[in-house]
């Protein structure tokens, strides 16, 4: 079946399962219409409730069972439907997986993003790894690429997974802290398990604080295997690259966003899709011939290692676009079940010990979380490929099997369903032999070279953020021996890193490196080395009060919208504000209901009365100052420059139409219809750079 057909069939499946309760008669689960649902059946108005009230009993019983066990990890998530389409057929040389090789076909997908450590009720913007799990509904069966926004993991063998999760979860004595790694047990684990250091470097970097799911990379983490029509294997690493670029929040910002809007990333994804700004990612692969398996200074089977892109470039395969939000969060986003062992012909596993454990664990998890073995029949999990097998009965069985047999081989049903038909999955043929042993390969034991590579590849700004993150996290650790052990491990990564961290957490700085810094870099590891710029979907707050320059606001808002940005007029109160020409300007948000951390940029228009009112309002001044502190683009024109001065942003920022020293503040004394086009261009350029990293917080006058 073609993948366009697969997409149509998936949509048809979901249409059949979609229930619209609007304007319908209220019924029980058995379809019996209900006459009254506000009061229980009782013996008299003040008498005892009667057990024969089947409606209330059913209603309460169902409510009591509405919650299923949340995921042990990745509990808090957001999801969406979309499509994947390959660019061309070049990958057919390496795999028989049709959804990766036929540019004429599209494959429906469901993508779930998530944090890892927190519960379902935690905030989106915590410092954490993000899940990036994609279910492809292919004509050959479901394929799940269950990845993260880091290319490496914390441990090398799945046997350690329960230990790692127990360490990072809230401490058992008091269930504190929620969705945070800044506590004793996690860092105790890290200090004694140096294999964690590479992923820890990513966790301490800005990669752990994504601006949005739409601006976040994804990785398959493991080395998988592609298999061609002749049974030849090729090692593969999967990469997802966002069309909008990879951008992050800053630490002070994420803590405030958690209070202002704990659903920040979830809301951003939902709003983008609803507004037609469909998120896009490019799927790329790194391919390694099997004969080159041992050509690297690390082991390809080690999930704590990545393949530097300078050694093996990422080759583009196709594009994924998210086009539709779920209709019901529980039925779809919460019940979607991923499994690393859900593969299709042309994709197979390697002997990565972490991957092997995941192949066992995921199925076991779904069985208990979703109530039994028939969870694949839930609409969001149901494949578009036809399902025929001899598996029967069990909790939640929705299929009505009419066959006279449920075993193989049989003569009664002509031996159907038959194995071995054309297109059947065939496991990759690999010779395996060895002694039963519990011992990790020596090739897994270089724990420090790649963390050093990551550190060496950071820009000055990124390195400063990593040091600050280590200081914050370890500053929350009560046991100073644990702090000291972590610093001792960091000296094997880089002596300067260890010394800078030690200086902030009250432990002695090491005087000798654990090993020499190899000096190698990989620019692809830095978010700032090759940024994607642009204003598309960036949110811009336009501060306004009575007397605002109506013509100037209109021109600014129209220009930003034409460039794909999302401007919002933020007033001191909701409703409208009076413009200086006697008209009105609609207010999108009231200042008390928002915060600067929810926007990517701030503009302060002209209007003497408006500027005076904003200058007198402490919240408005804080809004501007805080946005400036977080490196965001700031624009002001005409009397709006008075607000910038009152916000104690250095006077030099209010003297020209161009960003001063590339610090992202764009100003002009013009207003209304006289605003120069260069002002709009400069502001858009400053927004597109995401942050003015040349700006320091001491640029805000004391």
TrEMBL record:
It comes from the Bacteria. It catalyses: 2 H2O2 = O2 + 2 H2O. Residues 519-528 have a biased composition (Polar residues). There is a cross-link at residues 339-362 (3'-histidyl-3-tyrosine (His-Tyr)). It is an enzyme of class 1 (oxidoreductase). The active site is at 74, 148. Residues 1-21 have a biased composition (Basic and acidic residues). This is Catalase.
């Amino acid at each position: 079946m073609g993948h366009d057909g697969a997409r149509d069939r998936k949509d048809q499946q979901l249409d059949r399962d979609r229930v619209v309760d609007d304007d319908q008669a209220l019924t029980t689960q058995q379809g019996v219409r209900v006459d009254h649902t506000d009061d229980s059946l009782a013996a008299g108005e003040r008498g005892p409730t009667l057990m024969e009230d089947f409606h209330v009993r059913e209603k309460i019983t169902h409510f009591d069972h509405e919650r299923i066990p949340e995921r042990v990890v990745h509990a808090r998530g957001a999801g969406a439907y979309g499509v994947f389409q390959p660019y061309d057929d070049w990958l057919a040389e390496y795999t028989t997986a049709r959804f990766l090789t036929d540019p004429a076909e599209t494959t429906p997908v469901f993508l779930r993003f998530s944090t890892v450590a927190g519960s379902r009720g935690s905030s989106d913007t915590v410092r954490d790894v993000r899940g990036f799990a994609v279910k492809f509904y292919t004509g050959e069966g479901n394929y799940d690429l269950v990845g993260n926004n880091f290319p490496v993991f914390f441990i090398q063998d799945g046997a350690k997974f329960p230990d790692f999760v127990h360490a990072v979860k809230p401490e058992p004595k008091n269930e504190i802290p929620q969705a945070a790694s800044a506590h004793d047990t996690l860092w105790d684990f890290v200090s004694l398990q140096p294999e964690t250091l590479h992923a820890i470097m990513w966790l301490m970097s800005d990669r752990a604080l994504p601006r949005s799911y739409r601006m976040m990379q994804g990785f398959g983490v493991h080395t998988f295997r592609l298999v061609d029509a002749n049974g030849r294997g090729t090692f593969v690493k999967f990469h997802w690259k966002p069309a909008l670029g990879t951008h992050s929040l800053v630490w002070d910002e994420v803590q405030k966003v958690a209070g202002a809007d704990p659903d920040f990333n979830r809301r951003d994804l939902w709003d983008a899709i609803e507004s037609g700004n469909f998120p896009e990612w490019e799927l790329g692969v790194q391919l390694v011939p099997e004969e080159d398996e041992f050509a690297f200074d690390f082991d390809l089977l080690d999930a704590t290692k990545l393949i530097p892109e300078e050694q093996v470039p990422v080759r583009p395969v196709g594009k994924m676009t998210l086009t539709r939000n779920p209709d019901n969060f529980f039925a779809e986003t919460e019940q979607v079940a991923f499994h690393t062992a859900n593969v299709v012909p042309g994709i197979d596993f390697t002997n990565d010990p972490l991957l092997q454990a995941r192949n066992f664990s995921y199925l076991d998890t779904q069985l208990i979380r979703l109530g039994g073995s028939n969870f694949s029949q839930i609409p969001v999990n149901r494949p578009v490929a036809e399902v025929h097998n001899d598996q029967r009965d069990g909790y939640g069985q929705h299929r009505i099997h009419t066959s006279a047999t449920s075993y193989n081989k049989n003569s009664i049903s002509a031996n159907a369903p038959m194995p071995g038909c054309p297109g059947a999955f065939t496991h990759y043929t690999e010779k395996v032999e060895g002694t039963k042993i519990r011992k990790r390969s020596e090739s897994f034991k270089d724990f420090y070279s790649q963390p050093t590579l990551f550190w060496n590849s950071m820009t000055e700004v990124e390195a400063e953020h990593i040091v600050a993150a280590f200081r914050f996290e370890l500053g929350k650790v009560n046991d100073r021996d644990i702090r000291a052990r972590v610093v001792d491990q960091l000296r094997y990564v880089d002596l300067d890193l260890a010394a800078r961290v030690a200086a902030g957490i009250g432990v002695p700085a090491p005087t000798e490196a654990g090993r020499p810094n190899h000096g190698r870099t990989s620019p692809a590891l830095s978010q700032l080395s090759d940024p994607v710029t642009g204003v598309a979907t960036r949110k811009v707050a336009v501060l306004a009060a009575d007397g605002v320059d109506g013509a100037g606001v209109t021109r600014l808002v129209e220009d930003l919208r034409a460039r794909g940005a999302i401007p919002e007029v933020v007033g001191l109160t909701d409703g409208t504000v009076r413009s200086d020409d006697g008209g009105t300007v609609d207010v999108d948000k009231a200042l008390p209901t928002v915060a600067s951390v929810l926007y990517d940029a701030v503009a302060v228009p002209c209007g003497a009365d408006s500027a005076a009112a904003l200058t007198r309002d402490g919240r408005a001044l804080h809004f501007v100052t805080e946005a400036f502190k977080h490196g965001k683009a700031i624009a002001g024109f005409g009397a709006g420059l008075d607000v910038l001065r009152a916000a104690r942003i250095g006077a030099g920022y209010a003297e020209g139409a161009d960003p001063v020293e590339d610090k992202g503040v764009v100003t002009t004394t013009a207003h209304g219809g006289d605003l120069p086009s260069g002002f709009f261009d400069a502001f858009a350029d400053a927004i597109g750079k995401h942050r003015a990293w040349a700006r320091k917080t001491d640029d805000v006058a004391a």
